[in-house]
């Protein structure tokens, strides 16, 4: 168990301490107004922790405060970790970015693409381009999520039991075969759509490495980085530190979500796109590895050239998500933001009116957790909280702006 502490005066790394305090005062209002249960935030620069703060409750009903070691469900902040796992195997020659996914999951060899019709009677076309590993990393695969409720293909996922949860007892291999049996939303590489791509990538990691995804992550990433509280299940000894998962109540307020209990049970499906719980300390460690060009404290997971390549915009034609992305919920603008190999990547901050740097890479989770790495300013920030959905409030752009305005060097 690790606890994150400030290890440098903000002024030593270019922050104005008074302006940095605006981060806390702003996000405290969310708790005081009843919009968030509680939160933890960490800001670092040049590898030094300049700011750590905790506020509110991890369990509102029980009156239990957020603590430095509180455990949070990070949902889609699992995706960058799984993407790093795939990139490590790429560096080892165990998979290729242009490899067809069917090389690792044969059921994807006969994929079809939706053309028209209902979820019960779709008309489909043959695939014109094999789905490749890089399509999974960039979410240009044509896969989707059942919870989008935006297209007949989304409904096909729901009809098979894939929405915010998956059918009880189903493992990752079986789920991937089921995804392969459902038509794609579009031809791979032609559009961007958020979906189960990173779950499928997790299965590719399993096949390519010969290890289960939980074992690979534990032995190759989480253990070496000292992320001892990050796992697909919160162990019995840590459940008292687990934050309650809340949903936004229509009309205002918070209501506990029944989905919150799932993280305390042994998972049958190792969801590389959404399955981990973590702590502020642990995810800060992961961001420092990213900010450090793939290495932290003498442990190198990726070569710095690989990480630089992964955090460039890989969308076809170099366009942004606004141009190529399907219009689904998002708390941040798609304008001026591209997508790399597992991360969003800022192309032009002015297009989306975001106070950040070109090349900033980031992602967040369904329960409003978020992180970003700004390689120009050498800044990282992590926000932990537990409110679904993440589109409820504009927490991510506010965090960026509040941190950036505090830089005065």
How does this model look, in words?
The protein has helices at residues 17-32, 78-91, 133-138, 152-159, 172-181, 197-209, 213-222, 280-291, 304-310, 321-324, 395-405; strands at 38-45, 48-59, 64-65, 71-73, 112-117, 122-126, 246-248, 254-256, 277-279, 295-296, 299-300, 337-339, 344-346, 361-364, 370-374, 379-384, 387-388. With 409 residues, it is an alpha+beta fold. The chain has 2 domains: 10-71 and 228-405, DD-peptidase/beta-lactamase superfamily (Beta-lactamase); 86-209, 3-Layer(aba) Sandwich (Beta-lactamase), CATH 3.40.710. An 8-stranded antiparallel sheet has the order 3-2-1-16-15-14-13-12, with helices on both faces. The chain has a 3-stranded mixed sheet with strand order 8-7-17, with no helix packed on it. A two-stranded antiparallel sheet has the order 4-9. It is globular. The model has no long low-confidence stretch (mean pLDDT 95). One of its GO terms (molecular function) is hydrolase activity.
Helix and strand topology:
Layout: H1 17-32, E1 38-45, E2 48-59, E3 64-65, E4 71-73, H2 78-91, E5 112-117, E6 122-126, H3 133-138, H4 152-159, H5 172-181, H6 197-209, H7 213-222, E7 246-248, E8 254-256, E9 277-279, H8 280-291, E10 295-296, E11 299-300, H9 304-310, H10 321-324, E12 337-339, E13 344-346, E14 361-364, E15 370-374, E16 379-384, E17 387-388, H11 395-405
Parallel strand pairs: 7-17
Antiparallel strand pairs: 1-2, 1-16, 2-3, 4-9, 5-6, 7-8, 10-11, 12-13, 13-14, 14-15, 15-16
Helix pairs in contact: 1-11, 2-6, 2-7
């Amino acid at each position: 168990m690790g606890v994150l502490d400030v290890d440098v005066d903000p002024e030593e790394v270019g922050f104005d301490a008074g302006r940095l305090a605006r981060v806390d005062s702003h996000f405290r209002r969310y708790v005081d107004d009843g919009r968030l249960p509680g939160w933890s935030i960490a800001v670092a620069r040049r590898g030094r922790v300049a700011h750590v703060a905790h506020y509110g409750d991890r369990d509102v009903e029980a009156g239990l405060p957020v603590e430095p070691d509180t455990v949070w469900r990070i949902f889609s902040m699992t995706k960058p970790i799984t993407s790093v796992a795939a990139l490590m195997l790429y560096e080892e020659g165990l998979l290729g970015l242009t490899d067809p996914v069917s090389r690792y999951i044969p059921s994807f060899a006969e994929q079809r693409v939706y053309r028209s019709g209902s979820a019960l009677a779709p008309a489909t076309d043959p695939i014109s381009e094999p789905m490749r590993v890089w399509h999974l990393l960039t979410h240009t695969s044509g896969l989707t999520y059942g919870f989008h409720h935006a297209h007949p293909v989304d409904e096909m996922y729901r009809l098979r039991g894939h929405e915010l949860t998956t059918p009880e007892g189903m493992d990752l291999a079986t789920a991937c075969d089921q995804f392969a049996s459902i038509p794609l939303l579009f031809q791979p590489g032609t559009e961007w759509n958020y979906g189960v791509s990173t779950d499928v990538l997790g299965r590719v990691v399993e096949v390519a490495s010969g290890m289960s995804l939980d074992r690979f992550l534990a032995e190759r990433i989480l253990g070496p980085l000292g992320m001892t509280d990050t796992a697909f299940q919160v162990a019995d000894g840590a459940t008292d530190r687990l934050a309650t998962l809340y949903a936004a109540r229509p009309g205002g307020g918070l209501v506990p979500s029944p989905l919150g209990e799932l993280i305390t049970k042994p998972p049958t499906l190792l969801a590389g796109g959404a399955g981990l719980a973590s702590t502020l300390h642990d995810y800060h460690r992961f961001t420092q590895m990213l900010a450090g060009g793939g290495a932290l404290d003498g442990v190198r997971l990726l070569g710095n050239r690989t990480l630089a390549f992964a955090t460039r915009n890989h969308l076809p034609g170099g366009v942004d998500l606004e141009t190529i992305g399907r219009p689904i919920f998002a708390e941040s603008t798609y304008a001026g933001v591209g997508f790399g190999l597992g991360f969003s990547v800022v192309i032009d901050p002015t297009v989306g009116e975001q106070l950040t740097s070109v090349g900033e890479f980031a992602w967040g989770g369904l329960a409003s957790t978020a992180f970003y790495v700004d390689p120009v300013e050498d800044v990282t920030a992590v926000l932990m909280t537990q409110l679904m959905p993440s589109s409820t409030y504009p927490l991510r752009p506010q965090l960026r702006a509040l941190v950036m305005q505090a830089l005065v060097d």
